[in-house]
Amino acid sequence: MSARYELEPLHRNTPDAELLDDLKRVAAELGADTVSITQYNNLGRFHASSLQRRFGSWLQALARASLASRNMHVTEEELFDNLVELWARLGRQPRLSDVTSQSSRISGDTYKRRYGGWRKALEAFVRWANESDVPTSTRATVPVGMKHRTPRNVNYRMRFLVMRRDNFKCRITGRSLATDPSVILEVDDIVPWESGGETVFENLQTLAKDINIGKSNLEMKSDG
Questions:
Q1: 72-127 pLDDT per residue, tens
Q2: Most CB contacts within 10 A, which of 61, 119, 195, 223?
Q3: CA separation for the pair 135, 132 (Å, rounded)
Q4: Burial label, 138 (beta-carbon count in 10 A; 0-12, 13-18, 19+)
């Protein structure tokens, strides 16, 4: 007997309460205060797209079910910074299947919700990355005791530009996420802030975290 093909039901006449109750049931099964699209598609009676169509978005469905939504207030630069790290670690374009709780600080569902799909999220990231021009700076240092012209902290865009220039490798050891997944890369000043160093492109470098800590300890000892 040949196999029969059947269409999935549209659930157009399913009451809102029934959809929301099923969403709450999945959360209870998971023992969590929220549910991702992937989790719901694995455990729910309906498909996540049915809830998204009914309530306008997955976030609104979660809100109607009185469930929390993770990463709601993540900024675009934080989303892209996470992608920079993921891309550098893999050494290639990340796939949605690469975005796991072990590899990424932000869920794949967050990118899909924010941009309307994983591919669109990558397209937005590539535009941001390719349009990131190296800022023109004035001087890399100011005389000790004079007021700095730049903020102390390195913003996400500057961090990306410096790491891209340094090929996402520690400038001292050559370690990178692609060759050593355990390495943590940071961007730090060459001339220390306390010695008049400004937070400008020319005065920043990519360092492995353990090297950066060692550098800071040496600077503290020399100051003492």
A1: 567 888 899 889 888 888 888 999 999 887 788 788 888 888 888 999 999 999 89
A2: 61
A3: 9
A4: exposed
Strands (E), the chain: 185-189, 204-208
φ, ψ (nearest 5 deg) of residue 141: -140, 160
8 Å CB contact between 115 and 80: no
Other beta carbons within 10 angstroms of residue 146's beta carbon come to 9
User: What is the model's pTM?
Assistant: 0.58
> Comparing C-alpha atoms, which of 208, 154, 166 is closest to residue 185?
208
Q: Could you tell me if 176 and 170 are in contact, meaning their C-beta atoms sit under 8 angstroms apart?
A: yes
- Contact in structure between 70 and 38 (CB atoms under 8 Å): no
> Among candidates 40, 53, 58, 41, which has minimal Cα distance to 12?
53
44 DSSP assignment? -
**Segment 27-59, tens digit of pLDDT:** 999 888 888 888 888 899 998 888 888 888 777
Six-digit token string for 11? 């659930």
- CB 164, CB 201: distance < 8 Å: no
* List of residues 6+ apart from 61 with CB closer than 8 A: 19, 20, 23, 51, 52, 54, 55
Amino acid sitting at position 82: N
